[in-house]
Amino acid sequence: MAHRIAVIAGDGIGTEVMPEGIRVLEAAAKRFNIDLAFTTFEFGSCDYYLEHGKMLPDDWFDQLKGFDALFYGAVGWPDKVPDHISLWGSLLQFRRQFDQYINLRPCRLMPGIKSPLAGRKPGDIDFYVVRENTEGEYSSVGGKMYEGTEREIVIQETVMSRTGVDRVLKYAFDLAQTRPRKKLTSATKSNGISITMPYWDERVAEMAKQYPEIAVDKFHIDILTANFVLHPDWFDVVVGSNLFGDILSDLGPACTGTIGVAPSANINPEGKFPSLFEPVHGSAPDIAGQGIANPIGQIWSGAMMLEHLGYKEAGDAMVEAIEAVLSEGDSQVLTRDVGGQGTTESLGNAIAERI
Amino acid sequence: MAHRIAVIAGDGIGTEVMPEGIRVLEAAAKRFNIDLAFTTFEFGSCDYYLEHGKMLPDDWFDQLKGFDALFYGAVGWPDKVPDHISLWGSLLQFRRQFDQYINLRPCRLMPGIKSPLAGRKPGDIDFYVVRENTEGEYSSVGGKMYEGTEREIVIQETVMSRTGVDRVLKYAFDLAQTRPRKKLTSATKSNGISITMPYWDERVAEMAKQYPEIAVDKFHIDILTANFVLHPDWFDVVVGSNLFGDILSDLGPACTGTIGVAPSANINPEGKFPSLFEPVHGSAPDIAGQGIANPIGQIWSGAMMLEHLGYKEAGDAMVEAIEAVLSEGDSQVLTRDVGGQGTTESLGNAIAERI
Ligand SMILES: CC(C)[C@H](C(=O)O)[C@@H](O)C(=O)O
Ligand SMILES: CC(C)[C@H](C(=O)O)[C@@H](O)C(=O)O
């Protein structure tokens, strides 16, 4: 039976890297005998917003809920639509309504990609950031008082539920179980953020009891970001709240030099709703339309999608193809950001051929 | 007339680096003819807590409010007192009750100190983080419901006032005015944290109108942490909320390799209350008691204190002395963290002699 994939390219370079993502997925599907059926949607982009006054049609939930996965490009074009409108109107809706409570991002040094850190080489850095993706600091509760006066005050509530915290911790501990080092690091700030963060620590301590084989440590977010730079080799699985996870999952790929090519998965682990796979890079209005965007983030996200659908071998083959093409370093093939003179298409093609 | 300085060494290595801070301050005071009068206090440490059941005596405010500055070592010893108790009971009280609404930290590559970033040398990185220090995410408003049940929920409010936001922005813009590059970067997350952060952006835009000579930009905190690693040379003055400033002012010194030696100032700019000067490093229980802690953070904090008291030349001379001793690289003098075999005292002595 075919796996039904909803494709939403979104804005800017999202529309350019998406065809390459699909190209490589189709190559992998062919080689590993997987039946993928892609359906493309126009909504979830700023152009759609300009035409319809909203990012998504009213029945988007029903249109999408039956799919096995969502393959997303990038959303946002601040000159057309303010970010908080385009993002809360699309990506953040999917995450919440489809209860994609895990955001998973690998941070790994790749061959052929220069790390900004001194003296680090592939193998030295290889960890995952697991981010809570539906509650916490990203809340819609709060408001303004004494508006427009000197006494103006703005309040926004961070909301953590036991259900919300425990389920992301469980996912992270389970992931740590599958890794050779079996190590979990919790991001906290309980010395300063004195109500929610001590609670987070409490739940980590509680969950840790059920995983005696896992080595658990925690760092306050300030020193944790410092340690990403100073000791990236310390980390294996790092788990954080919505905001802390957001920060760490940009900083991690920055430390490996892979922020332009990193993938991410927004997962509903129970499979009750479709999960969503998207590159970490945004829509990059500054280079959009030139055909020079690096498609690896989209392709690597496709690999995570295949793994999620149960095809680990096929996903691994996609990542190996990416690494092989990067290692070869053919400047006719590689895009500019990784030192070549090639195009989005030349790089996508080369990776597809490898498979 | 003498400047009255309250000295609180606090915990762990705080008690070891403090004498060196004072030694170098006294050398600078002698050379520049400044009259400093130090008064030492035992409170504000975990040992005080164990004896008295509180971090500070009830009349601490009255005891300290008449001083011209507070010179602080480090507080915290989790095995004795949980961090959120020791910190909310001391440092965070000072910041709030003495309305030290500015937290200022320099991020600078120093001669003789290795940066974890590839290919950066002194001169390449030199910026300030200005952090809001009294409100925002560090609030004491919130609580727990359905405690101990599956439905448990924890809420903590981020509170931003116009007064609180505007005054830190004004300080940061004023600081940017004094710098050759006249550049200000605002840390935000208005695409995700949809109530407080768009408000922060609004106030930045409003304040910017009064400083047409300042080049202003903003980044979301996730990509901003990435850019600290990828493009630290972009920054001049970076301003952020309490939490974002906390993160950036650890990450910045981490990128320059100076996290063990960085200083910080907690400032009440109006001088209505004393300001507080402390090293960024904590009490470091793991190396406490061995006499090997690097005293530069304490000494550099002393330099910021002298500058705050109106003696810029003397403060600069202290920083120059630090740089000179680091450049010389005498391994008998330097502490282990910077490649030597010396002690806290040998390094403090060498810097004092330079002055
Ligand atoms: C110890 C802690 C409460 C404090 C803070 O978060 O403010 C520290 O990290 C700092 O930056 O001074
Ligand atoms: C665009 C933004 C709202 C989003 C987030 O903060 O979640 C992005 O940074 C991400 O990490 O996917």
UniProtKB/TrEMBL annotation, chains A, B:
EC class: oxidoreductase
GO MF annotation terms: tartrate dehydrogenase activity
Domain Isopropylmalate dehydrogenase-like per the UniProt entry, residue ranges: 4-351
Cofactor(s) annotated in UniProt: Mg(2+); Mn(2+)
Lineage of producing organism: Bacteria, Pseudomonadati, Pseudomonadota, Gammaproteobacteria, Oceanospirillales
InterPro entries in the cross-refs: ICDH/IPMDH (IPR050501), IsoCit/isopropylmalate_DH_CS (IPR019818), IsoPropMal-DH-like_dom (IPR024084), TTC_DH (IPR011829)
Family statement: Belongs to the isocitrate and isopropylmalate dehydrogenases family.
UniProt keyword terms in alphabetical order: Manganese, Metal-binding, NAD, Oxidoreductase
Reactions catalysed according to its record: (R)-malate + NAD(+) = pyruvate + CO2 + NADH
Protein's UniProt name: D-malate dehydrogenase (decarboxylating)
PROSITE patterns the record matches: IDH_IMDH
Pfam family of the protein (one): Iso_dh
Presence of keyword Metal-binding: yes
Keyword Manganese: yes
SUPFAM superfamilies given in the database record: Isocitrate/Isopropylmalate dehydrogenase-like (SSF53659)
Species this chain originates from: Vreelandella piezotolerans
Record EC number: 1.1.1.83
Gene3D superfamilies: Isopropylmalate Dehydrogenase
